[in-house]
Structure formats: C-alpha cells, structure tokens
Amino acid sequence: MSDVLQQLAQVLEQRKLQTADQSYVASLYAKGLDHILKKIGEEATETVIAAKDGDKDKIVYETADLWFHCMVMLAHQELGPEHVINELQRRFGLSGLQEKAQRDAS
Ligand SMILES: N=c1c2ncn([C@@H]3O[C@H](COP(=O)(O)OP(=O)(O)OP(=O)(O)O)[C@@H](O)[C@H]3O)c2ncn1[C@@H]1O[C@H](COP(=O)(O)O)[C@@H](O)[C@H]1O
What we know:
Layout: H1 3-14, H2 24-31, H3 33-53, H4 56-76, H5 81-91, H6 96-105
Helix pairs in contact: 3-4
C-alpha cells in the first residue's frame, strides 16, 4: 500500500484525540457521519465535473479531495485504507463480467 495512505491513516487516528478548533479532520469528526458523507457527495460531484471538463489538473485535485474525505469516513467507521486495498487485491485478476455472473447465479 502507498506510504502516504498509511501515513495519512495514522494522522487521521491521531486527530480523534484533538478538538475541532485544532484540526480540520477533528472538526469533521465533531460534525459527525452525515457531514462527512455530505463532503464525500460534494467532492464526488466536483470530481465528475472536472472529468467532464477534461481538466487533468482539476481531476487530480478533486480526486485527492474525494479520496481524503473517503479516508476520513473509513477512519470514522474504524476502518483503514488497508481494508479497501485488501478488497481490491482479492478482486485482482477476477474479471468484472465473471464476478457479476457469479453474483447473478447465487
Ligand atoms: N489531505 C488533506 C486534505 N485534503 C483536503 N483537505 C481539506 O478539505 C477541505 C475541502 O473542502 P472544501 O473544498 O469544500 O473547502 P471548505 O469550504 O473549506 O470545507 P467546508 O468548511 O465546507 O467543510 C479543505 O478545507 C481542505 O483543506 C484536507 N485536509 C487535510 N488533509 C490531510 O489531513 C491531515 C490533517 O489535517 P488537519 O486535521 O487539518 O491537521 C493534513 O496534514 C493532510 O495530510
């Protein structure tokens, strides 16, 4: 897993001990899950708009915002990026069409 994801996950855990005026992440935790989910929705929309505009710098910037807020959501739910990476690793090499056919059959 990327070092920066692991390092960021550690910072997000440490921020659980801070107050909202000390840290943006702590302020997100203080506002609660619904606010974090709203931020994910906003960042997802901004990512879609950037992609529709074809602005590569903006796509990267907005995707980073989206990933960051998803990381905050995972931390809030006592999960980390390793759980998502493990799921992607589990799926690796398994055709999306094959996986869907298996799901539809069960
Ligand atoms: N990667 C990020 C990161 N990406 C985006 N953001 C913040 O996410 C917010 C993006 O939301 P918007 O664009 O909607 O800006 P906004 O209007 O200010 O946000 P709202 O007040 O509406 O929530 C901005 O305030 C950004 O600064 C981030 N804030 C923090 N981090 C990482 O988290 C660490 C801990 O941050 P603090 O908790 O603030 O110390 C930092 O060292 C960084 O590594």
